[in-house]
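Course assignment 3, question 2. Fill in each field.
Student: A.L.
Task: Predict the tertiary structure for the chain below.
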Amino acid sequence: MTTPHADAHYKAQTLIESLPWLLRFRGAVMVVKLGGNAMVSNDLLDAFASDMVYLRTVGVKPVVVHGGGPQISQALDAAGVASEFRGGYRVTTTQAIPIVASVLVEDISADVASRINHYGDLAEAVGGDGGLFTAHKTTTVVDGETVDLGHVGEVTSVTPEKITALLAEGKIPVVSSYVPGEPGEPGLNVNADQAASALAVALGAEKLVLMTDVPGLYANWPDTTDVISTITSTTLRDMLPTLSSGMIPKMTSCLEAVDGGVAKAAIIDGRLAHSVLLEIFTPTGIGTEVISG
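Answer field:
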């Protein structure tokens, strides 16, 4: 077989191998949290945007939830506002929260929607002022001590009608993790992984995918870089207290999604182009998948 024909045959074989997953996920809601290095690379953002249009075109119903850690850090630095992380969460002061809101809602949501619409006029940014999320102020525990995180919140309820209506119209909702406060009150900076998990549960999603900047959950970090391919919710629950502070919010979000009825939740490496498609449409997937059990 000549090289051009061999390449074509390989591509055809790849398409055929994806058929079982295309059939399985057609019509299913899939919540994808955009984060990690994918958010600071134009090439990776464009690859992500094309992936979302591909999913919608083949019948999957993707919902994008994004954070904005790198961009928020850059904006805070530019404004001379101090920023720190405690227990895997950004401490968000009264001075910082309007900058956080501006970056998430006005900059990133608009940019992600625009990139998706470059490949197909499908995306619509959903602002936090539509009552999608209700959240309350939260704290975290570091070394046995409760830490005040400032204007940081946790989603307590979701009103998903706006999202379901957009999905019914064939749209791709793009959702930020900022929750506005009452008139005259500052809003809350919600962890995007937790917001994506809560939304996946509310929508009855088939799968939650969290894009991050690591290959997955390591089996025994830092002694090994072997990644756990699949883990049950029971095993993860026992393992959770031993994880690094940065990994705890991500894996907690996966656990909460599965406990809430989402069939599968996965963390994948957002530094790889088309990582979402690799996770969904290949036999082995990539990263770490959490299942009930």
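Instructor remarks: The chain has one domain: 21-291. The first strand starts at residue 29 and ends at 34.
Grade: pending
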